[in-house]
Amino acid sequence: MKARKRRPAGKVAGPAEASVLKFSAGGVRAPLKSSAAPDVDAAGSVETLARRISQAVSIPTVSYADYSRIDLKQHRSFHAFLRQAFPLVHKNLEFRKINDYALLYFWKGSEQSLKPCLLAAHFDVVPAEDSGDNKWIHPPFAGHIDGGYVWGRGTLDIKMSLVAIMHAAESLLAEGFRPARGVYFAFGGDEEIDGKKGARSIASFLAEQGVELEYVLDEGTVIASGMYPGIEEPMALVSIAEKGHCNVSLIVSAGGGHSSLPHKENAVGILCKAVTRLDSRPFPARLTDPVRLFLKGISRHSSFPERVVLSRPGLFWPILKIVFSRNSNTNAMIRTSAAVTMISGSEKENVLPVAAQANINVRILPGESIRSVLDRIEKVIDDSRVAVRPNPDWLPNEPVGCSDPLSYGYSAISQAIKRIVPEALILPFLLSGSTDSKHYTALTPYIYRFSPVVLNEDELKGIHGVNERISMDNIRRCADFYITIIRITSEKAL
Q1: How would residue 228 be classed by pLDDT, with cut points 50, 70 and 90?
Q2: In whole angstroms, what is the distance from residue 70 CA to residue 101 CA?
Q3: Residue 124 designated active-site
């Protein structure tokens, strides 16, 4: 299948207001209200949609790195829930269950010459501890509805989008709507463990069918309000690139023995020195295209002198690098990160370790590679006793390069954002995390990541944390966003 040439990136679509030099890590604030009447009532009230999300959350489709621990009965229960909750979708759209981790729907368009788009989401979730300091207000898989929220694991990551996509299709089918451009709905069941059996299987199937996509939209960055002090307008951050990631094992083998007769250096000590060296020498900062476009976008409404600095990020890079490096949020935008997440040694308190091992979780900036990461880690550690190897339990992924912010897909997403938050400033961004969208790079050069929600700092903590929940306002936004973007596919051009 021939890949299309990228159109050169130009000016960012949409202005922005901010001050990077006064960046705040305080999260985002809510609520925001859409001035447009929501379409959610086309197939039921927001309360009805909330109940559907509640049903989805009550099915514990938990992913584990060890696939043998995954309860596929719960996956199949979720598939059955979709069939029951959205009968028109299953009657009118082509459906293929590739495997228990990969569901694919196709809404055939009236214009066969138009390349279809793909809306992605996933139905698996991370585990939810509910005890001690991690005690939930409501049980994580109860789907409790209370206080203007639906509570539970997966409400934000990301069953709310999956249910909203299906609701949008069900609503539009009830109206007799048919898009001109075909639309795929791709739902993976193992995104939280890199999508090896889910999205990757879907992408392989589409490639075998010779499908070329106009664009892909997956989960991603949100609508941020209060991100910069003094700026009232919310910023809709549409990620046009994605960091890669890999898990690197540092392994030290040494003679064991009894702890009462310690060696001058044992495996844990050697390993700790290696980790310390790695922590003390972070990857170099670099200005990538997504961050350059983001900074130029926010410069347009910044006050002097920030406007001058942000409009010329290359020229003022030495200043920006210092400022961005001070904050963990902005630091992640300008460099590959390497975080020590796991370390192990002896299994008994009085036994010297025969081997010690650490896991380094690396998020790779576009323009770098897994190979360059491994080479640099070896160079920084500079100790032949420390083996540096990719962790075989996790699928590594190269960074996903920059997609054009002047494309059809970016414009469609922008129009849908304006529908739900008309005052939003729409900006391209770099996603520091990882999504299923990385598996679709062979099908289109236009891949975007955006979640149509406005979250405050406390709500953000619920993603992969305690008390994950979604508000009724955000449920309404999600429904309206996906209805709008599917409607836009009925247009041949924007």
Answers
A1: low
A2: 11
A3: yes
